Every structure is written in structure tokens, then in C-alpha cells.
Amino acid sequence: MTISKVCVIGAGTMGAGIAAQVANAGVPVLLLDIVRDEADRSSVAKGALERLKKAEPAAFMSKAAARLVETGNIEDDLAKVAECDWVIEAIIERIDLKHALYAKLEAVRKPGTAVSSNTSTIPLEKLIEGRSEAFRRDFLITHFFNPPRYMRLLEVVAGKDSDPALVASVSDFADRALGKSVVVAKDTPGFLANRVGTFWLQVAFNAAFDLGVSVEDADAIGGKPMGIPKTGIFGLVDLVGIDLMPHLKVSMSATLPAGDPYHAIAKDHPLILKMIEDGYTGRKGKGGFYRINKEAGKVKEAINLQTGDYAKAKKPVSIPSVAQKDLRALVLAKGIVGAYAWAVLGPTLSYAAGLIGEASDDILAIDTAMKLGYNWKYGPFELIDRLGSAEFAARLEAEGNAVPEIVKLAAGRPFYRVEGGVREYLGTDGAYHPVVRPEGVLLLEDIKAASKPLVKTASAALWDIGDGVVCLEFTGKMNALDGEVMKAIEKAIPLVQESYKALVVYNEGSNFSAGANLGLALFAMNIAAWGEVEKLVTGGQKAYKALKYAPFPVVAAPFGMALGGGCEICLNADAVQAHAETYIGLVECGVGLIPGWGGCGEMIERFRDDPKLPKGPMVAVSKAFETISTATVAKSAANAKEIGYFRPTDGITMNRDRLLADAKTRALALVEGYTPPTPPTFRLPGAGGRAALDLAVRSFAAQGKATPYDQVVAGKLAWVLTGGEADLVDTVTEEQMLALEAGQFMTLVRDERTVARVEHMLTTGKPLRN
Amino acid sequence: MEISIPHSLGRDEAKRRIEVGLPKLAAHIPGGGTMSSAWTGDYALEMVIKALGQTIPVALAIEDAALTGEVKVPAFLKMMAGQIGDFVKVSAGKMLDKE
Amino acid sequence: MQTYKAPLRDMRFVLNELHNDDGFGDLPAHEEFTPDLVDAVLEEAAKICEDVLLPLNRSGDEEGCHWERHADGTTTVRTPEGFKDAYDQFVQNGWNALVTPPEFGGQGLPESLGKMVEEMICAANVSFSLYPGLTNGAICALTAYASDELKAAYLHKMVSGQWSGTMCLTEAHCGTDLGLLRTKADPVGDGSYKINGAKIFISAGEQDLTENIIHLVLARLPDAPAGVKGISLFLVPKFVPDDAGDPGARNGVTCTAIEHKMGIKASATCQMQFEDSIGWLVGQPHKGMEAMFTMMNAERVGVGIQGLGIGEAAYQSAVWYAKDRLQSRSLSGAKYPEKPADPIIVHPDVRRMLMTMRAYNEGCRAISGWVGRALDAEKHGADAQTRARAKDFVALMTPVVKAMFTDLGLESASLSVQTYGGHGFIRESGVEQYMRDARIAMIYEGTNGIQALDLVGRKLPTDMGRLLRSFFHPVSAFIEESKGEGPMQKMIEGLERAFGALQLSTATIAERGMKDPEEAGAAATDYLRLLGLVAMAYCFAKSVKIAGFQLAFGTQEKEFYQAKINTATFFYDRILPQSAALFLAIKSGKGSTMAMPEDAF
């Protein structure tokens, strides 16, 4: 079945967010809710749409996406469900209301329309009690995570009567169009992610209270060292809402099978109940385990779990550096560090392992659920591997605790291994099975496990990714770009030309690239090694232009942050295939510099070629100036197209795992009849254009939006964009533009105000407004 | 630092003598330095003495009874401000004396 | 013969002429210190050093200190004859607390001037300098960290010189690695502590110059964490002050022995026993190392000055001998045919030695003036940026001053002995004492190896090289503005080459050191020397420029400026080329240094 229109019923946080993500996929969506106001019967859904448009973080990836959402109510507009191929029910968790809704849907939907529920607490069979066979065939649970745009996990639960083909279609749509990683779960309470997550939080709470561990220490120990986000335990609950905890406990206690270890640890802590009573429900309330005390001057405070009083948040206990990276060392560390770490990990990992056979038969599913649903760096079984499954079992035994079956089955072997270059996992049959990716998914991780790089430098590597395509991977810290990356590029050109067909620029780090290696540059600046700095600039220019004019297609595949030099490599590529969540921009002005690797010329070319913009040399220059001087960063790939960093023809991949495959396909599609682009020439407005840009900057300054140094930097940018000493009758070549960039860059780099900005950014991560 | 060289020539004659003497002065900068000059007004002269990598701007105003001016001694040569000032005074004096 | 006349003209050159463009600016707090006032202070300091301290240098070395046990069981240490009178004169005229701020009773002189005076004192009598010197270190720690009560009870008398101070850190089993120390402090309950332990190598631990001695002792509290994070600083007086503030009850602090040392024999280097001594906490519990480092960083510059002082005294003594001693004829024909032989100063090799010493001394003095100005600007600079830059510069240059000045000081002392020939080896000549006195400066207050590690391991990587900027940028700017044709062309090219070698070495060490700390460790000592040489070269180039201007504009002091140009040229011709060798050594990496297995030694 094809899904061309979706209906979402229930415009609460989840329903609205899901609708927005469907719209982000370019699919029209009907958002319905109850009638509350007779005067404006669809006010609930309409209000939700307005809130979505202003949501922080943003729910819509572009203005166009918002226009795909149609609002209505379940009385007047339910019939429109017949236009839809998939209906998602995301109303309040009341079975009576759901039953009533499903009955109505049964009447109006067209046959074969999928119906799914976003429930997290009601079993599937209970949901579809009383429904027809046809309805039961087309029904499934699709459990999204909050916020639906950004959280990659989708738990899919099929009923015993659900049509596998329909479930597969919906899953496929969720995968490719919505960009979700689908994990198949059984119809058990909490499915997988929340099943483990709820237990984990309860165990962590209990241990903190029992061992007298402060919230700061609990979050420090139970966060980064375990690969868990630094919100840890208490910070996370503040985010999610403390008032949710009692509800979860009630729900889980009621629905979990007798004998489930959760029952033994489930308890309400009086302090938490009191906090909820007093309105301390977390970040959305007046604070939670942490709060900002505005009267004391915006001081961050933490609650004392023993006394219930707030005090200034203390620096957490120091964790020995070996324990920060080695999980074994962490649980064996002296004092509360090791004690708390094991008090959390021991029971949690044991519980997760114990789910095999009941909630899941697949260790991969449990790991993926925790990694994508709770942003854990390692899933529970990967964590057990990091402890050593033998050591884990031994310690459980030594403490008189039961060892889960699957751990016994492992018998000291790891849950994951790489055999013959293939990643394998331990199945419930005790044997290893290869990890199979969904069809069409190509991961660099798998290629790296199975092969050696064609070329390796200190900051980059070249990989053969099959079918004649080479992948250029950044490998430095934060994927920073430096001379070693340029070296790899220089080696890539003849290599691909000789023996391959195309090049893709891609990696699987947390970000595509945060830009040039500023630390290196700053060091060179600090020792006045101006020649070295200039080499960094001209070296990058040379390498990027070599990519641009290479005799084969080059496709950049950015995701996450693609800033500065990371943006410029995309600008110089023949085409871009971007992940929907790409935050790309030329941010050099923020650190007192200007783009030095061709960004200036490329942006002028972009705006010049844009058919929607009027003609004239000043138009492209002004737009380029505006975009670069304000260090504009796109909030999504779609937004990047709106801004002009991406061409209208550039592609967007919704599912992060499919990015490489899509980029490779794009590159191969360009091979036939490929010719490198012609070097552009520019006619730039010179001094006259500069006067106009200067006016714009001064008005910004008058509004307090530009500091004095911002104006200096903008002036240098304007010099480059207007062609320097050239005027309208001169032709400016691309090489001349590059020389202008390098010249102004080197002037700025010697200014102590730029040095201050670069230093501030590197030491604090925040821009300096000097 | 400020300097003042009194004379009794009247503005125009003083100016004429300076004009005549300037090129010769340029050849006599100690240590093989150079001097450049430019009239910024009818009776205002700006000179730049360059020697050993240091730049010393001198601004002179020609008045009826005196030459007044400012020598911008760079920090590097602070302790020599006196000697540099003397040099400028003596040089200006020499130019005024020559017919 | 030990001969010394303070090099006042060169000191005035460094203070008044050389560093006016360093950007640290005129400090309003020191406006009153005009060149005339500075001159007056320098001249008076020279007098007391030359007339009072210098005559006691040889005699103090010959006699040494006396450790005596008396019938009543007490032990005392007697300094050599004349030291007590000299000390009294010294403190009466306020020479002991020159730089201490007036609010604590000191003279409030700028550090830059203070360092010149320190140089003179060390040139005249290094052993003597340690008595007020250690007290100043203790004052530094107390002013920064002690409570108001402790300050009220002790500071004033220490600043006046009535009481002295010591730093008690080292124990038999730990010097460099103070985390291992064992001295204990147990709370009595009334805010005081009982200190128990044994310290060694305590300079001026016991003496007969002052009526009370205030020991600053590093010890561990009962609940202290292991290592350096568990060390606290305590004030333990020899006599606990009574209600009137005078020395009262004798505390449980005894000097159990003094060391028999290679040099600085007139300095009492004591083994101290603390037995249930009463002490008070200085600063926060477990933060003793922080307090200690504040003092040590200041003392490190002071120890460097010891090296410079000795170097200057050794040089002057060698010059005296070289002009007096007649041996052989000049290689280019007899210079004094009426004499039986020419004075050895005519011989190239003797010249080489004298010029080397002279270049070392002038170069180090120039750097000391620069660092002195930074020390002042750190506190009194006009804006936060200037103060921060000055702080960075001091932090960067402190290890260079300490290690290079002391290394060169020993070298000069050795060259002086060599100049004296056989007589140099004889005690009576006086110059061998300089070698013996100089040797310890390379070891204490953080060995020179530790200084080098501090430079490459801590100062270099901080904030991606931020500290380096305070040095590299002025030198780079100077080279750029001075390049081109002209009389200094060759010299500037030499500076540029050496500076380039320094930049390359810095980048090499930064890159390699990040991956392997041993690479940084292996390159550290050579790098420190390279940085120091470039600093001297920069100062010499500036000196030549100024001298050039002075000569061109008709100075009355032609000889002084011409000599400056000569010395600088010698440095550039004969000493600075070492920078190329140092760079090559650094470039070669740690391989051959670390390759040999332990058993093969």
C-alpha cells in the first residue's frame, strides 16, 4: 500500500508532533481533535498547529511543511479519514474514549486504511476489543517518542490478527518517509524502551536515596561514564516531568506480570510526592530536583534528597579518569562512585537481559530501543559486553542474585562480536548471527569492520563503499578539518579518477563537521606562525577546488552540524544529499573571520543562479552578505534550501541510516555523461556595492545588533563580496575571489579581537561579542 | 612632545626657507634614515622620519614669530625623546638660518 | 679575587631605556619612581652590597655556620662572624622588604627595580641573600592566604625584619614529589594544631639573626586525601607570641643538625624536628600546595636572579684577573712591550670566555627587566587585558628565568675559574666559591628539569598556546618592523632565523607531545634553552637599535652604547647559532634518548 495522506487524531504534544513530522516528510496530514468551543469547533487542533509553528525546539523543518497540515475536529471532519491511508490515534490514555473512537473510525475509513495507536500503557488486544476482523487486520501499535521530530525510535507492535503486509508498509513508511528506526516489540507493558527505562529510573532513584548519594553525584556517575546523556537520572526526570513517575508506577505495577522484578523495587518516595504537591514537577514547573533560584541571582540549586532542602548545586564527586572510559573500572571504583554505579547497572542490565523471552527475543531490539529512545550511547547488552559478560554474571552470583537466562547462555562470551569482518550478535539459540541491516541501508560502520581503508591520514580516510564509489570520511576530533584532511582529498582525486567512478563525502560521527581545526589555527596564531595559518587557508582552497573540478561526481552527505569549512565542502560538491536534520551554515564571522575556502564565491554563485531572485550584480552580493555576516545556520535541510545553502535539486534523506546509500545512488546517477563545472566569472559592484553594504551594517549597529568589531569583520567580508578593487566593468575570476578571501582572512587573523573571539569559542564553546 | 622654535622672519619668509631646506634635511637623517614631508595647509607641514624601523611623525605649524609643533616619539624611543626633539629643533633652526 | 661593582649603568639601561615599548605601559601606581629616584635607590643598594655584604662573602664561606648543643639541651645555629651586624644594618635601612606593599609595612618599590637590587645582593653574597629572601617568600604566602588574625600577629615583624621566615616542605623521602610527605597536623580543638614531623634542607631554619623564626610547614590533616590534594599549610613559630605580641613560649621546633654543603655554606641549611609544635592553618584545609605555589612562583624568579648575580660577580672577578695577569704575548704582536708579558685579556680564547660571560649577564639582565615590568603590570596594569597579558608572560617566562639564568650562572662561574688558570682552583682566589655557590640554584625551588617540564607540559599547552602569545607576538612584530636594508639587516635576519626555529620547535613539541608526553619531556630542556636564547636575542636586537639611535643622535655616552653593540654582535655571532643545534636536537625526537633498556645502564 502507498501512504499519500495521513490522519492524526489527538492534537496533544505527541499527536501534534507526529503530524508535524508527517508534514516534514512532504506528506499532507489531517490533524483532528475534539470540539471544545462551539464558536470555533476546530479550535483545539488549530491551536495545536499554531503552537507547533512556535515550538522550541522547532517541530516543522520548513515553512512549507506547516502548510501541509489541515486541521479539523472529530465530529465534523471524521469522514475525511476516508481520504487517508493511515490513521494514527494519539488521544488521552482512556480505553473508553479509544474504544468509542475506534468504533467511529471503523465506520468511516476506507478498507485497507491502517489504524495505529500511540498508546504506551494499554495492551493491544484490549484496545481492539469488539472490533471487526477487518479492523483487527489493519490495526497495530506505533509508539513514537517525544519529541517525534527528533527521536528516532518507533516501537511497532503487531496484534495476533494484524496483517503482516500492512504492518510492513506502515513500518516502511515510518522508516523511509518519517526517518524512524523501527523496532519490533511484543505487546508487553512499556514495550521495550520504557520497560527498561522505567525500571532503570526507579532503581537509580532508590539507590540514590538508600546510599545517600546526592543528585549531582548520581547524575555524574549515572551519566557520561555509562554513555548515558549527561542529564543522568534526576536531570532526565526533571526534563520528562516528575509528575509522570507516579503514573508510570501505577500503570506498570498494574500491568506487569506477577513476579516481574519491577514489583520488588517499585515504590513512591515521600519526597517526590511532596515535590509534586508543591509544584516542583520539573523544568515545565517551577523546577524539580534542580531549580534556578532567581532571587539568589539565577543560581542553579539542587535538592538534598535526605532533607528536602535546596542548596547551591555542588561540583559532583570526581570520577577517576580511568573509570570515566572503562566501565569495569567504574563499577570497581572506590567509594560511592563504584557503589552507586553498580547499584544502578547491576539490576538494570540484569532486568533488561531478563526481558529476553518475555518482552523480546532479540537483544538488538532492546539495545536499539534504549539507544534511540533514551539516547544511550550503548544499549544494555553492549554495556554488559563492556563489563565483560563473565564478570557480570560472576558478580551477580557472588551477590546472591539470579543470573538472567540469556547471560547464562552467553557463558562468558560477548553478546556482540566481529567475525570475518561481519558484526554478529548472540541469538536466543546460543549461536551468533550476523547483524542484518534493513534493505537498502548501507552503514560505513559495517564497511569499516569488513575492510581496510584505501588511504588513511591522521584526520581522514578513504573507503571503497562498493559499485565504484569511494567515501571520504573525516576522522579527527569533532571531525575538524585540517591539512591532514586536505592531504586525503589530494590523494582521493587521482585514486578515484584511475580506478573508481565517484566520491561521496560522509561519516558517522555525531556531526558532519564543525569546521576547520580552530585549535590548530589558534596555536599557530599564538606563536605568530602566519605562514602556517596561510597554508591552512590556501591548502583548503586548493583541495576544495580540486574536488569541485574533479573529473567525476562528488556528492556531499551532511548531517547534524556542517559549519564553516564543513559547509564549504558541501558548497563545492556537485550535489548534496543531506539528512533532514542538517544544521549547516557559514559561521566564520562569529569568530571574527570570513569563509576562506571558497564559501564567499560559492554563495554569490548560488544566489546568482537562483531563478526566484531578481537579476543584477548587487542582489546576489547582498544576499550572500546577509547570510554570511549574520552567520546564519539552517535549522534543517529543508531550511537550508530556503536559505540557499542547498540547491533546489539537492536531496534530503529522512532516515539517518539511509543517508549513505542515498548519497551513493545520487553519485552513481551523475556518472553518465559527467562533466566538471565551468569556473565561474563574476561581475561585482566594487566600491559602490560596498557603500550599500556599509549602510546596512551601520543600521544593524544602530539597532544594537552589531558590535564595533562585527562591523570591522563585515567590512572585510564586504570587500571580498564586492570584488575588492574591481568594479562592474571588470571580470573577477574564481581564483581572484579566492585570493581576496585569503587576503582578508589573513588580515583578520592577525587582529587581537579575532584571536580573542577564537580563543573564547574554543575555551567556552560560546561566541564572544566583542 | 611639543617643541617651539622662535624666529623673527615672518610667516612667509619662514615658510620659504623651510621649503628650500627640506630636501637637504632629508639627506642628513642620522643612522641612514629617510624623511618624507607633505604640506597639509598653507602653513602646516607634516614630516615623517623613518630610521631603523622606527617611525617618528612630526607636525609643524609656521607662525609669524615661531615654529610650533609636535614630535610623536614612539614608546620604544621614549628615553631619547629629548635628543630627538633637540635634533628636530636644531634642524629646523638650521633651515631658518639659511637664506 | 672576588671583586664586584654593581653594573648600574646597564641596570639603568634595562630599567629606563630597553623596554618602553613592551606595551605594559606606564603604571600610575609607580609614577613616583622617576629615573632619578630609581638611580638613587640603585646607588644606595650598590653601596651596602659592595661595602657590607661583599666583604663577608669569602669569610662566610670559609667559616660556615655553627650548630651547637648547649648544656640545657637546647640547640642553636650561629651564623658566621659579621653576619648579624650586616643583617641589622640591612633591615634597619629597609632593604629586606623593598617590594612588599606599604600596607604591610614594606617600601612598595616596583618589582623591576627590586629585581635589580636582588641581583646586587646575590652578586655580593648569595648565602646572606637567603635569610631575607626566605622571609620574603613566607611573607608572600601569608599576605595572600593567611587569616587577618595571623597577619596581625606576624606580618609586620616579618616585614620589618625583626622576625624571619622559612619554608618547610622537603622531607628525607620527598622533594620533587611532595605528595608523599608525612608530617602530620592534628587539630587541638581551639583552632590550633599540633604538628609532628621532620623536614630537611630548610634554609635559615635556625639562626642567630632574629628573635623569632616563623616556619611555614606543609603537613597533612587527619582526614586528608592522598597525594598533593591532601596537603595543608601551617604557620609554626619558634616562639609563640605572648599577649604583647613578643616572642613568648618556646615551641616544639628544633634544628637537629645543619648540612655540610658544597656551597652557600654561610646559609644555615637545617634539619628541623617538629614535636607537638603548635601551629595555625594558613588558607583552606588541603589547599596548602596552592598557597605554596604562589610563593614558589615568585621565588623561582628570585633563584634565577641568584644565577645572574653570581654570573656577574664571576665575570667581574675574571676581568680583574685577565687585566692583571701577565702571560705570553698577543698573537697579533706584543701589546705591552714594556711589560714582561701581555695581560691575558689580549688572548682570543680569554676574550671568548669574558665576552661569553658578559653576553650571558647582559642578556639575562635584559630579560629580568622585562619580567620585572610584567610582574608590576600584573598587579598594577591599567586594564584587565594588560594585566592578563602580563600574568601570562610571567607564567611563561618564570621557568626560563629560573633554569636558564642558573645554568648560565654556573657556566660563567666555571669560565671565571678557567680564566684564573691554576689559581682558580685555589680557595683563596675566591672564584671557585662562585661555582660551588651557583650549583644549588640549578636544583632547589624546583630542579631545572622540572622547570623545563613545567614549560612544555603546562605552560605551552594552556589554552592552545595562549601564554606563548605574550612573547611570540612582540618578537614577531619587532622582526617585521625592523626587516629590510640598514645597519641591522644581518642581525634581524639572525633573529628571524632563530625565531623561526623556535616556532617550528614549538609546533613540533605541541604536536608530538599531545600524542606522547614523553616526547615533550625529552625535548623540554633543549626547548627551554631555545626560548631563552631567542628572548636574549630579541633584547639584544632592541638594545642595538636604541644604541644605534643614541650614537646617531650624538650621545655623550658613546662608549657605553658602542660596548652594547659589541656585546650584542658577539652574542649573535657566537652564541645564538646554538639555536639551530637545539632545533635539530628537538626535531630528532625522544627515540635515541629512551631506546636503551634499563639493564644496559
Count of structural domains of chain B = 1
DSSP E strands of chain A, number: 25
How many DSSP helices of chain A? 33
Silhouette of chain B: globular
Task: Going across the biggest sheet of chain A, name each strand in turn.
Answer: 3-2-1-4-5-6-7-8
Strand content of chain A: 5-15%
Which stretches of chain B are poorly predicted, pLDDT < 50 over at least 5 residues? Answer: none
Radius of gyration of chain B: 13 Å
**CATH architectural group of chain B:** 2-Layer Sandwich
The total beta strand count of chain B reads 5
Mean pLDDT of chain A: 94
SSE pattern of chain B, N- to C-terminal? EHEEEEH
Radius of gyration of chain A: 28 Å
CATH class of chain B: Alpha Beta
Can you describe this structure?
- The complex is a heterotrimer of chains A (770), B (99) and C (601).
- With 770 residues, chain A is of the alpha/beta class.
- Helix content of chain A is 45%, strand content 13%.
- Chain A folds into 4 domains: 6-184, NAD(P)-binding Rossmann-like Domain (Rossmann fold, 3-Layer(aba) Sandwich); 193-418, N-(1-d-carboxylethyl)-l-norvaline Dehydrogenase, domain 2 (Orthogonal Bundle), CATH 1.10.1040.50; 444-587 and 633-666, 2-enoyl-CoA Hydratase, Chain A, domain 1 (Alpha-Beta Complex); 591-629 and 678-770, no CATH class.
- Chain A contains 33 helices and 25 strands.
- Chain A has an 8-stranded mixed sheet with strand order 3-2-1-4-5-6-7-8, with helices on both faces. In chain A, strands 15-16-17-18-19-21-23 form a 7-stranded mixed sheet, with helices on both faces. A 3-stranded antiparallel sheet of chain A has the order 9-10-11.
- The longest helix of chain A is centred in the middle third of the chain and has 20 residues, at 335-354.
- Chain A is globular and about 85 Å long.
- The termini of chain A are far apart.
- The mean pLDDT of chain A is 94.
- With 99 residues, chain B is an alpha+beta fold.
- Chain B has one domain: TATA-Binding Protein (2-Layer Sandwich).
- Chain B contains 2 helices and 5 strands.
- In chain B, strands 1-5-4-3-2 form a 5-stranded antiparallel sheet, with helices on one face.
- In chain B, helix 1 crosses helix 2.
- The radius of gyration of chain B is 13 Å and the shape is globular.
- The termini of chain B are far apart.
- In chain C, the strands form 3 sheets. In chain C, strands 3, 4, 5, 6, 7, 10 and 11 form a 7-stranded mixed sheet that branches.
- Among the domains of chain C are: 8-142, Acyl-CoA dehydrogenase/oxidase, N-terminal domain (Butyryl-Coa Dehydrogenase, subunit A, domain 1), CATH 1.10.540.10; 147-154 and 161-292, Butyryl-CoA Dehydrogenase, subunit A, domain 2; 455-590.
- Chain C is α+β, with helices and mostly antiparallel strands.
- The longest helix of chain C has 37 residues, at 288-324.
- Chain C is globular, with a radius of gyration of 25 Å.
- The mean pLDDT of chain C is 95.
- Chains in contact: A-C, B-C.
- Chain B binds chain C through residues 30-33, 51-54, 74-80, 83-84, 86-87, and chain C through 16-17, 20-21, 481-484, 486-488, 542, 545-546, 548-555.
